[in-house]
Amino acid sequence: MSEERIELRAIGRVESPLRELAGAPKQGDEGAPEAWLAIEPELAEALAGIEAGDELVVLTWLDRAPRDLLSVHPRGDASRPREGVFATRSPGRPNPIGLHRVRVVEVDGVRLRVADLEALDGSPVLDLKPVLSADVESR
What is the DSSP string of 28-87? Predict the structure, then answer.
């Protein structure tokens, strides 16, 4: 396996009542509580244009997920055959990057309150991107 190193830095942290993986929903639309994205103050300008009601894709680093899993039973269901992690949404994978589609509920300075985020409290936020649809002009 290639040992190429890529340097990332967190742009913020998740603040959520979800503290343990066992208590977190598998997907955000399966009962995730509202959470906050606390973005680093020096990145405030990068949040310009984000408003309540916007849909974002949030990339997180799933820092408590195992990095040595290559196959899993989808959704942890042992009655289903194993599949490679790249064919699943399993948090355990060589690079545990979380991909979350959320709705912005509130913007408070460098903090965004969002719905449908299943990431655990303290998870590093790597990036935010707007959700684009056919009827929305590209930004």
Answer: TTTTPPPEEEEE-GGGGGGGTT--TT-EEEEEEE-TTS-S---EE-GGG-TTSPPEEGGG
pLDDT (tens digit, 9 = 90+) per residue, 41-60? 999 999 999 999 999 999 99
**CA 53 to chain centroid:** 18
pLDDT at residue 31, as a whole number: 63
Alpha-carbon distance of 122 to 139, in angstroms, equals 29
- Which residue, among 128, 108, 109, has the nearest Cα to 117 in the 3D structure? 128
Closest CA relative to residue 119, chosen from 67, 65, 70, 80 = 65
How many CB atoms lie under 10 A from the CB of residue 111?
15
Q: What is the pTM of this model?
A: 0.86
Q: What is the pLDDT of residue 128?
A: 98
Q: Does the pLDDT value for residue 108 go beyond 70?
A: yes
Give residue 139's pLDDT.
Answer: 54
* CA pair distance 4, 34, nearest whole angstrom: 36
